[in-house]
């Protein structure tokens, strides 16, 4: 026998219509009815609470497997913005990116039988490396699918962890479809980079650390692609600090989530080349992060390629740290609207530091 809370948790994690009906039968229809009918109600209206609980569970689950990254005060950004600016350095995480948190939480949540069967992922970048690292650490079989245009360096990084790499598809959408199909045919677990509540909760452990590292945060700037990172952070922080403002930052060349939220539905928008390859690409039609971002993110900012490049150069010059384009997007977003946050305590999530040599040469 399951409690209503357990059933709702299953509903949120699986996104299952059947489990949603089960919740209605156990808990009754009346609490779920809203004026205006049933159509507007969804489990996402209470999902921030679930993210909070799931994030605490994730933090306990992965704590010994990941690195608690530092929160550094930035003198240069503080001076430029007339506010107190802090940098959450996920570029120092194992594998060089925040992605390890979500992948680790998802895989550690599996039962032993599922672990023994194996795991499948699709990614040419940080998510693929995070999954491969986790599989290597836990001695779990698996494979990572990459698109045809994946860089040899990134493929080699994934292979270095002893995970099988298969090249499929001319773009990431096709690659992911092939990977999902393979996982379903063979009964393997597919690890999404963002469209999974366990992955979202894993990314949210950044917020658990922030809560202990800094009091009374006024605003957090987060790079926004598929929305897993910002959903996890905002879902947790909004629970412990309802007044905090969460700002999502995306490149103008790949504004899929921001444009989708403005349109009220997930759009199929072709991305243009961008330095922020970590946030580039489409959003799945059933992505749980769409509703989460719509509900939990306070503001959205689009930045140009030049603004991204300038932020990368600034970080190298002033902070003496290498960051990837996706991390620079959040910095560029802050600099673009810094006048709105004077005398406030601001955190910028520096989401990763995996930059290729050619990209590094190009921005200098």
UniProtKB/TrEMBL annotation:
Domain Tryptophan synthase beta chain-like PALP as annotated: residue spans: 64-352
One Gene Ontology biological process: L-threonine catabolic process
Cross-referenced Pfam families: PALP (PF00291)
InterPro entries: Ser/Thr_Dehydratase, Ser/Thr_deHydtase_PyrdxlP-BS, TrpB-like_PALP, TrpB-like_PALP_sf
TM regions (residue ranges): 12-33
Keywords from the named record: Lyase, Membrane, Pyridoxal phosphate, Transmembrane, Transmembrane helix
Cofactor: pyridoxal 5'-phosphate
Gene Ontology molecular function: L-serine ammonia-lyase activity; pyridoxal phosphate binding; threonine deaminase activity
NCBIfam families listed in its UniProt record: PRK06815.1 (NF005292)
Family, as annotated: Belongs to the serine/threonine dehydratase family.
Protein name: Tryptophan synthase beta chain-like PALP domain-containing protein
Organism: marine metagenome
């Amino acid at each position: 026998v399951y409690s209503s809370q357990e059933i709702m948790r299953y509903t949120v994690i699986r996104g299952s219509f059947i489990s949603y009906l089960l919740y209605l039968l156990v808990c009754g229809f009346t609490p779920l009815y809203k004026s205006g009918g049933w159509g507007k109600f969804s489990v996402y209206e209470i999902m921030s609470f679930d993210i909070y609980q799931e994030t605490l569970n994730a933090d306990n689950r992965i704590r010994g497997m990941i690195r608690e990254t530092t929160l550094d005060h930035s003198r240069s950004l503080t001076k430029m913005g007339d506010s107190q600016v802090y940098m959450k350095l996920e570029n120092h995480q194992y594998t060089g990116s925040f992605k390890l948190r979500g992948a680790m939480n998802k895989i550690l949540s599996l039962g032993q039988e599922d672990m023994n069967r194996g795991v499948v992922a699709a990614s040419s970048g940080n998510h693929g490396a995070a999954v491969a690292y986790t599989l290597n650490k836990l001695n779990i079989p698996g494979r990572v699918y990459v698109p045809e245009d994946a860089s040899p360096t990134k493929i080699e990084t994934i292979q270095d962890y002893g995970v099988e790499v298969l090249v499929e598809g001319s773009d990431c959408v096709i690659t992911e479809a092939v990977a999902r199909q393979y996982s379903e045919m063979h009964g393997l677990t597919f690890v999404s980079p963002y469209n999974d509540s366990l992955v979202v909760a894993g990314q949210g452990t950044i917020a658990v650390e922030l809560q202990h590292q800094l009091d009374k945060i006024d605003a957090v700037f987060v790079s926004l692609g598929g929305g897993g990172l910002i959903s996890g952070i905002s879902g947790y922080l909004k629970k412990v600090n309802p007044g905090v403002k969460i700002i999502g930052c995306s490149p103008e060349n790949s504004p899929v989530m921001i444009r989708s939220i403005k349109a009220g539905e997930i759009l199929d928008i072709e991305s243009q080349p961008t330095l922020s390859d970590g946030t580039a690409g489409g959003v799945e039609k059933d992505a749980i992060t769409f509703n989460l971002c719509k509900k939990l993110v306070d503001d959205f900012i689009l930045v140009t390629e030049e603004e991204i490049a300038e932020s990368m150069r600034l970080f190298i010059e002033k902070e003496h740290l290498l960051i990837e384009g996706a991390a620079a997007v959040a910095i560029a977003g802050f600099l673009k609207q810094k006048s709105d946050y004077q005398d406030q305590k601001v955190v910028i999530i520096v989401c990763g530091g995996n930059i290729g040599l050619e990209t590094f040469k190009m921005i200098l």
